[in-house]
From TrEMBL:
<feature type="domain" description="Phospholipase/carboxylesterase/thioesterase">
    <location>
        <begin position="11"/>
        <end position="116"/>
    </location>
</feature>
<dbReference type="GO" id="GO:0008474">
    <property type="term" value="F:palmitoyl-(protein) hydrolase activity"/>
</dbReference>
<dbReference type="InterPro" id="IPR003140">
    <property type="entry name" value="PLipase/COase/thioEstase"/>
</dbReference>
<dbReference type="GO" id="GO:0005737">
    <property type="term" value="C:cytoplasm"/>
</dbReference>
<dbReference type="InterPro" id="IPR050565">
    <property type="entry name" value="LYPA1-2/EST-like"/>
</dbReference>
<dbReference type="Pfam" id="PF02230">
    <property type="entry name" value="Abhydrolase_2"/>
</dbReference>
<comment type="similarity">
    <text>Belongs to the AB hydrolase superfamily. AB hydrolase 2 family.</text>
</comment>
<dbReference type="InterPro" id="IPR029058">
    <property type="entry name" value="AB_hydrolase_fold"/>
</dbReference>
<protein>
    <recommendedName>
        <fullName>palmitoyl-protein hydrolase</fullName>
        <ecNumber>3.1.2.22</ecNumber>
    </recommendedName>
</protein>
<dbReference type="GO" id="GO:0052689">
    <property type="term" value="F:carboxylic ester hydrolase activity"/>
</dbReference>
Length: 120
């Protein structure tokens, strides 16, 4: 079986102040407020970035690529966003790769789809 996937690449977020780095402006998908596992998170920023990724996915679907052929991935903050975007999407995607990342907003997290393959 030949597996064809579409690569959607957006290597970094927008330039914004990052609280964890003393407000220094840098490329970031969302604000990082703490390294503590129970520390505050930028819920609005995470969801806004997720919405942008979901929009990119839907653009690929409009171009003829089915959801089950789309896979997300990322490193560090990008990996965290890839996990969150995959797990909160209404359709089952091909999978997600998250490298050196974490699961943001884990307390309000929905049930994870069992139809998606995960490489963490």
């Amino acid at each position: 079986m030949l597996l064809v996937m579409t690569l959607v690449s957006q290597s970094e977020g927008q330039v914004m102040p990052v609280t964890l780095n003393a407000g220094f402006r840098m490329p970031s998908w969302f604000d990082l407020k703490s390294l503590d596992v129970d520390g505050p998170e930028d819920g609005d920023g995470i969801k806004k970035a997720r919405d942008g990724i979901h929009h990119l996915i839907e653009e690929e679907v409009k171009n003829g690529i089915p959801h089950e052929r789309i896979m997300l991935g990322g490193f560090s903050q990008g990996g965290a966003l890839a996990l969150y975007s995959t797990f909160t999407h209404t359709k089952t995607l091909a999978g997600v790769v998250g490298l050196s990342c974490w699961l943001p907003l884990r307390e309000e997290f929905p049930q994870v789809s069992t139809k998606c393959y995960f490489i963490l």
